[in-house]
Write a structure and sequence with these properties.
The chain has about 650 residues and is an alpha+beta fold. The protein contains 20 helices and 22 strands. The protein folds into 4 domains: about 25-230, Heat Shock Protein 90 (2-Layer Sandwich); about 235-395, Ribosomal Protein S5, domain 2; about 415-545 and about 590-640, Rossmann fold; about 550-580. Strands 1, 2, 3, 4, 5, 6, 7, 8 and 9 form a 9-stranded mixed sheet that branches. A 5-stranded mixed sheet has the order 10-11-14-12-13, with helices on both faces.
Length: about 650
């Protein structure tokens, strides 16, 4: 029985109740405001902030090598050969500048004074935030032929800046070592090499010629080192992304331009492939702007305008023909948009979206002028691109006709939801969830075992379509995919509207075998390619049914992996064991207890940290090329205990 709780609140609200957090206390109090989260993502963000400072030195022209090491104990060590953080006394505080940089928010060389023309560390909080969220941090600065040293603990100064030695002639730079504070990062303080590798490779692509070296020293008998240096810059980035795709023109289209006042630069690299999807990545001062911004808007407007102008001018489109849409001209396009700008205006500390209007104008202008010239000078490439765009346009029209047919059929049948859907009673997406289940047998058990208040069940039937090899027009009418679209309520393609989502959790529940894994990857491909916001906003989950049931003295125990089964058998001794070949072997009570009860079930939320990596993975796994798929499976088999996604 629920009771209403009344909390007594002090009605007086005066100056005594205003809490002032001094120094870096605010960062430790609310770390998520500065690094996004205190989970795995925030942990790695600490490294990015220190590396960003070194990259800023490279942007300023004073650094060409950055070394990043993961030492035993997950200690991070970052060294650059830049100018070194200034060590002289800061005139306002009387403290050494390096001390101010690591202990005062919004302090540094990025607020004026000519220290940096452009910088990814706009807000000037990177070094001090890392210091605040570390158990300890040590900084060495090589400056004026001396080596300076200072240590901090949880953001507080342990010793004054001191000289600990002489530097070699011409040697300068900064070295930062720190250990993340487990009081802040409660989930984990263990770094993932692959995550850091992806970010550092990206930085090397964005800064042609800079050498970034990543070394993992945690296993002293198996030290891993990778060096990233790309003279081709973002053109090499496009080549890297397209390595497992079939390009429809051999050369990567590249152009750049500087603003008239010298305060901004725009650089674009692009190439079309035989894919049906676009891959557009944008960066501002080397920061990945995941939500785009004015530079992306400027690129899209100019690309659509230039393509339609060329098509009409050269008779590819008649005057009476409709223009190509933005989606048509971007189908199969891989593009990198990188802008460097003084006084970049990001919408938040995490810098996900750029807001400078002048950079949108610059990108629009450079694409409009230089792409037009490129198409005129390369008619064979232009023909290949327009053949692709026209095919996309025809498919879009076919998809619209198929969509309208599906709508008319639904009206005639007077049914807005799939017939096999067992809906839930609640209509609040915050509370509801839908299980997409393979097979009528498992679907029947799920329907009987569920909590009908908030759990809906949709059994799958019919042939599953591999959408990696299909455009939108083939999705409409597919007997297995369209019931999913109808049940979710969001629509797809032009109609997609996440605000109409009927269930907050979309849970894929398939057998724990090869066929189940195939079904999961087919569904994930569909969601990622045609309903991507569902993945990006964390609505997609994978159910984790058990592989084994062990019984002893009438008590049941469930194991979700071979290793877990072995451990239970060792602990329990002689037991009766049942291996589940499929979900249909479980009765409703077992399915509820192991896989559907929110208090006992295990689920994985599908997250996409890196759009380029996800795009590549789906292309490799679900595309036509066999060799890249074989290579991917061999390289990643070591990460799976069981056959799983």
């Amino acid at each position: 029985m629920e009771t209403n709780k009344v909390t007594q609140v002090n009605e007086e609200y005066d100056a005594d109740q205003i809490q002032v957090l001094e120094g870096l206390e605010a960062v430790r109090k609310r770390p998520g405001m500065y690094i996004g989260s205190t989970g795995e993502r925030g942990l790695h963000h600490l490294v990015y902030e220190i590396v960003d400072n070194a990259v800023d030195e490279a942007l300023a022209g004073f650094c060409d090598r950055i070394d990043v090491k993961i030492e035993p104990g997950d200690i991070i060590n970052v060294t650059d050969n830049g100018r070194g953080v200034p060590v002289g006394k800061e005139h306002k505080t009387g403290l050494p500048a390096v001390t101010v940089v690591y202990t005062v928010l919004h302090a540094g060389g990025k607020f004026g004074g000519g220290g940096y023309k452009v910088s990814s560390g706009l807000h000037g909080v990177g070094a001090s935030v890392v210091n605040a969220l570390s158990t300890w941090l040590e900084v060495k600065v090589v400056h004026d032929k001396k080596v300076y040293f200072q240590r901090f603990e949880r953001g507080k100064v342990v010793n004054d800046l001191k000289i600990i030695g002489d530097a070699k002639d011409g040697q300068t730079g900064t070295n930062v070592r720190f250990q993340a504070d487990p009081e802040i990062f409660c989930d984990t303080t263990v770094y993932k090499y692959d995550v850091l590798q992806k970010h550092l490779r990206e930085q090397a692509f964005l800064n042609a010629g800079i050498n970034i070296v990543l070394t993992d020293e945690r296993d002293t008998e198996n030290v891993i080192t990778n060096s990233f240096c790309y003279e081709g810059g973002i053109s090499s980035f496009v080549e890297f992304i397209n390595k497992d795709k079939e390009a429809i023109h051999p050369d990567i289209i590249h152009f750049s331009a500087m603003a008239a006042d010298g305060n901004a630069n725009a650089e674009i690299a692009m190439q079309y492939t035989d894919s049906y999807k676009e891959m557009l990545l944008s960066f501002a001062n080397d920061v990945h702007t995941t939500d785009g911004g004015t530079h992306v808007e400027g690129f899209k407007r100019a690309l659509t305008r230039v393509m339609n102008a060329y098509a009409h001018q050269h008779g590819i489109l008649k005057d009476s023909d409709d223009n190509l849409s933005g989606d048509d001209v971007r189908e199969g396009l891989t593009a990198i948009i990188s802008v460097k700008i003084k006084d970049a205006q990001f919408e938040s500390q995490t810098k996900a979206k750029l807001g400078n209007t002048e950079i949108g104008t610059l990108v629009n202008s450079v694409v409009g002028e230089k792409l037009s010239t490129y198409l005129e000078e390369h008619p064979a490439v232009a023909k290949a691109i327009f053949d692709k765009a026209l095919a996309a346009s025809r498919a879009r029209m076919a998809a619209r006709r198929a969509r309208d047919l599906v709508r008319r059929k639904s009206v005639l049948e007077n049914a807005s939801l799939p017939g096999k859907l067992a809906d839930c009673q609640s209509r609040d997406p915050e509370d509801t969830e839908i299980y997409i289940v393979e097979g009528d047998s498992a679907g029947g058990s799920a329907k009987m075992g569920r909590d009908r208040k908030f759990q809906a069940i949709l059994p799958l039937w019919g042939k599953m379509l591999n959408v990696e090899k299909a455009r939108l027009d083939r999705v409409y009418g597919n007997e297995k995919l369209m019931p999913i679209v109808t049940a979710l309520g969001t629509g797809i393609g032009e109609d997609f509207d996440i605000s109409k989502l009927r269930y907050g959790k979309i849970i894929i529940m398939a057998d724990a075998d090869v066929d189940g894994s195939h079904i999961r990857i087919l569904l994930l491909t569909f969601f990622y390619r045609f309903m991507q916001p569902l993945v990006e906003q964390g609505h997609i989950y994978l159910a984790q049914p058990p592989l084994f049931r062990l019984t002893k003295s009438g008590q049941h125990y469930y194991a979700y992996s071979d290793a877990e089964r072995s451990k239970l058998m060792e602990e329990l001794g002689d037991t009766d064991m049942q291996r589940y070949k499929g979900l249909g072997e479980m009765d409703p009570e077992q399915l509820w207890e192991t896989t559907m009860n929110p208090e006992t079930r295990i689920m994985r939320r599908v997250e996409v940290e890196d759009a380029a990596a996800a795009d590549s993975a789906f292309t490799v796994l679900m595309g036509d090329k066999v060799e890249p798929r074989r290579r991917y499976i061999e390289e990643n088999a070591k990460y799976t205990e069981n056959l799983d996604v």
